[in-house]
Design a protein that fits this description.
Number of domains: 1
Structural class: alpha/beta
Number of helices: 7
Distance between the termini: 29 Å
Number of strands: 6
Largest sheet: 6 strands, parallel
CATH class: Alpha Beta
Order of helices and strands: EHEHEHEHEHHEH
Helix content: 25-40%
Shape: globular
CATH architecture: 3-Layer(aba) Sandwich
Strand content: 15-25%
CATH topology: Rossmann fold
Length: 211
């Protein structure tokens, strides 16, 4: 899916989840692509097992498209396993990307990348995931200036970008804030806003969840 034609930005996620955010970026002049993660298309792809080679090819394709895109800031983003792929794209294409945004990433994959990635990198997690790995996250981020992380309160789902059709409803009360901060980071490089009120002294910052 392609949204516009001025400045390039690539978002690694599903079409339904990212439609509203995609259109907002397009309205700001970004050329937005939404590549489907292997095995996560319109039809089940159980006949083709997930493999390292398959994902390597996917990442190489993403980077090739971005490298040939017009001039402008190039931003890659992904959610969950897609976040790991977005991270890998930056690791192997360090000269291509200007920023990377990962939602609810696989921590083990993401932490290995923190010290190697030089561009601004925003991690966004949900409460029950971040609390379990708080010590490891704080340790990995210590002294790293180009990476920020915050987490959303209990009750927000792992698929935090789902439910865009109900963004204004109580079923997805967080959606306006997530979209606002996502667009601000992708377009201007502004870090996600935080409430500044951690649930515990040792906790990581809480992402803004209401406008």
């Amino acid at each position: 899916m392609q949204c516009s034609e001025k400045r390039p930005g690539i978002l690694n996620s599903s079409r339904a989840k990212e439609k509203t955010t995609c259109l907002r970026q397009a309205q700001s002049g970004f050329d937005v692509y939404l590549p489907l993660r292997p095995g996560h298309g319109r039809k089940s792809d159980a006949s083709r097992a997930e493999s390292a080679d398959r994902y390597k090819t996917f990442v190489e394709t993403m980077n090739a498209i971005a490298r040939l895109a017009p001039r402008g800031d190039k931003v890659v983003a992904g959610i969950s396993g897609g976040g790991a792929l977005a991270t890998e794209a930056v690791l192997v294409g360090a000269d291509i990307w200007d920023r990377v945004l990962v939602y609810a990433p696989r921590t083990s994959d993401s932490l290995k990348a923190v010290s190697k990635i030089q561009v601004p990198m925003q991690f966004v997690r949900v409460h029950h995931e971040a609390e379990k790995e708080g010590a490891a996250l704080r340790s990995a981020l210590k002294g790293v200036k180009n990476v920020r992380i915050c987490f959303y309160p209990e009750g927000m789902p792992h698929a935090m970008l789902a439910g865009t059709a109900d963004a204004e409803s109580t079923n997805a009360y967080w959606m306006p804030a997530v979209q606002e901060d996502s667009v601000a980071f992708i377009i201007r490089g502004r870090w996600f806003m935080t409430s500044g009120i951690p649930s515990k002294p040792e906790s990581l910052p809480i992402c803004r969840y209401a406008l």
